[in-house]
C-alpha cells in the first residue's frame, strides 16, 4: 500500500540490465530504480516477467537486492519482489530472501510446469507456501498471468485463498489482458484486495472501477504519464497506442529496446536466453513510434 494515499499505486515492473557476459549490471540497475522512483513510481518490482525473474538465480537475486540496499533504497516502502518458481522449495527460498530484505510485498505466481491442474491443487500449493512461511507470511499479491504460466487463477480460487488467508493475501495482479476477467475480479474483490491491472490499455477504466493501481512494464518508460492514469483514472490514448505496438513483439525484449531508445544506451538491449534481443529494424520501428506518440518526451 502507498503510505500516503492508502492505495497500492504505481509500481514499475523493472527490466533487468546485463553486462555483455550476461551478469546483472548492478550500477545500471540502481540508476534506473532511482530514476523510476523519482519520476512518478510509488515502488518498483524486481524479478517479475518484464525483469526476466525466472531466468535469475539465487545469487543474482541476492546481488540485486544488495546493490539496491547499498544505494539506500527503502525496501519496505519501495520494493516488491517476484516469486516465480515451479517447486515449492524454490518459491520459499525466493520469498524468504525477499522477506529478509524487508520487501514491501511478494508477487507470487502459481507453479507453472504442470498444466491443467485443478483449483484444489493450486489451493493446496498456495496453502503449503503460506503455511511454511508461517508468521512471516504477509503482503502476498497473487499473480495471474496465464499467457506465460498457462496456469490461470480463477476468480473462485482467489476468493477461496483470500477467505483462508485474509491477513496474508492482500492483492492480485491481473496480467491476463482479458477485460471480462478484470471486471469480474474487480466486482468480487475491489473491497478486500488491491486489484492491480497489468494491461495498461484498460488501466484507467479499472482504476475508475475500484482498482488500486498497477505493476507496469511501461513504467520503465513513461512513469509520469502512468502516474496520472493510476492515481487519477485518466485515459491516455498515446499509452494505449504504445502498448498495442509493443504487444506485436516479444514483450520483454521490446520493453528493453524502448529503454535503450529513450536512454540512448544500447546495453539495455541485452536479454538472457532463451529470449533474444530485438532486431535493429524492429528496435528502430518501436523507437520511431515512441517518438511520435510521446512527442513531448514525457519520459
TrEMBL record:
Keyword vocabulary terms for this entry: Lyase
Pfam families given in the database record: DHDPS
Active site, UniProt feature: 143, 173
Protein residues bound to pyruvate: 50, 215
Claim: Lyase is one of the keywords in the record: yes
Matches recorded under InterPro entries: Aldolase_TIM (IPR013785), DapA-like (IPR002220)
GO molecular function: 4-hydroxy-tetrahydrodipicolinate synthase activity
Protein family per UniProt: Belongs to the DapA family.
Protein name: Dihydrodipicolinate synthase family protein
Amino acid at each position: 500500500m502507498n503510505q500516503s494515499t492508502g492505495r497500492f499505486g504505481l509500481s514499475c515492473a523493472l527490466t533487468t540490465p546485463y553486462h555483455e557476459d550476461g551478469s546483472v549490471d548492478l550500477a545500471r540497475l540502481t540508476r534506473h530504480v532511482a530514476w523510476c522512483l523519482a519520476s512518478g513510481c510509488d515502488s518498483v518490482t524486481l524479478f517479475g516477467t518484464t525483469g526476466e525473474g525466472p531466468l535469475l538465480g539465487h545469487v543474482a537475486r541476492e546481488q540485486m537486492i544488495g546493490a539496491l540496499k547499498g544505494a539506500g533504497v527503502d525496501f519496505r516502502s519501495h520494493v516488491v519482489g517476484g516469486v516465480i518458481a515451479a517447486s515449492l522449495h524454490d518459491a520459499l527460498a525466493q520469498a524468504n530472501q525477499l522477506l529478509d530484505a524487508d520487501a514491501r510485498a511478494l508477487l507470487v505466481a502459481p507453479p507453472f510446469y504442470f498444466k491443467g491442474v485443478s483449483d484444489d491443487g493450486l489451493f493446496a500449493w498456495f496453502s503449503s507456501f503460506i503455511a511454511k512461511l508461517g508468521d512471516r507470511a504477509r503482503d502476498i499479491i497473487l499473480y495471474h498471468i496465464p499467457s506465460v504460466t498457462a496456469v490461470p487463477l480463477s476468480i473462485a480460487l482467489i476468493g477461496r485463498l483470500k477467505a483462508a488467508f485474509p491477513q496474508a493475501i492482500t492483492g492480485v495482479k491481473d496480467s491476463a489482458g482479458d477485460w471480462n476477467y478484470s471486471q469480474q475480479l474487480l466486482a468480487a474483490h475491489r473491497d478486500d484486495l488491491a486489484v492491480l491491472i497489468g494491461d495498461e490499455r484498460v488501466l484507467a477504466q479499472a482504476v475508475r472501477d475500484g482498482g488500486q493501481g498497477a505493476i507496469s512494464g511501461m513504467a520503465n518508460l513513461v512513469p509520469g504519464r502512468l502516474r496520472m492514469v493510476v492515481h487519477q483514472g485518466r485515459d491516455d490514448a498515446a499509452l494505449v497506442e504504445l502498448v498495442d505496438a509493443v504487444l506485436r513483439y516479444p514483450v520483454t525484449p521490446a520493453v528493453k529496446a524502448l529503454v535503450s531508445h529513450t536512454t540512448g544506451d544500447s546495453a539495455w538491449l541485452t536479454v538472457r536466453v532463451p529470449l533474444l534481443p530485438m532486431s535493429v529494424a524492429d528496435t528502430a520501428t518501436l523507437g520511431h513510434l515512441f517518438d511520435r506518440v510521446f512527442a513531448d518526451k514525457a519520459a
